[in-house]
Amino acid sequence: MISDDAVESLPVVGPVVCAALGMEARAVRRGLARTPVVVVGYRARRADRLPDDCAALVTVGFGGALDERLRPGDVLVADEIRGTGPDTRPVPCSAPRLLAEELIRDGLSVQVGPLVTTTRIVRGRERAALAAQGARVADMESALVAARAGARPVAAVRIVVDGPGHPLLHPGTIGRGLAARRVLARTGPALERWGVLLVSGAQPPCSPPP
Prior knowledge:
Elements: H1 4-9, E1 15-19, H2 22-29, E2 37-39, E3 56-65, E4 75-82, E5 91-92, H3 96-105, E6 110-117, H4 124-132, E7 137-139, H5 142-149, E8 154-162, H6 172-184, H7 188-200
Parallel strand pairs: 1-2, 1-3, 3-8, 4-6, 6-7
Antiparallel strand pairs: 3-7, 4-5, 4-8
């Protein structure tokens, strides 16, 4: 397991995993043997900590479902990352089906679809409007990380905590959050297997959305 500090002092030949919160980083680290994790902060305000020489950037953490078919504890692997600004273009993610297959191998409930990064927690009509555009989960970091990645491959994995039928401001959120953290802690091995295939060239670096 490689610490944040090691990322700054060692060359990184594989992907780097980034999480907004320390609790997310600690959870995903449990399943990682050799992949570094960087805490980029709320809304990726510390994205300048990310290295410039890694093979790919992978955002992980919790998210809010826009699609009512997604339940708390489900995993969304993004096939594209969208922003909400007028000039932003969707960023295609790298080999999302392969990553989903690796997570499913480890017994997780996984779906693939568009992820949208918003500037605030979305509810009600705003949530419904994003869902009508095809987005399935919202977060507040992935598009910012993807913009920093440049030409490097990107991926995003989000564990659902809340959704249309499971509001964030509710006593049940604590239990859902703990359950989501347990799911996140199981994602590391699949992330590393996916990373090996990506770096080895066994899979194309970018997979277009279906």
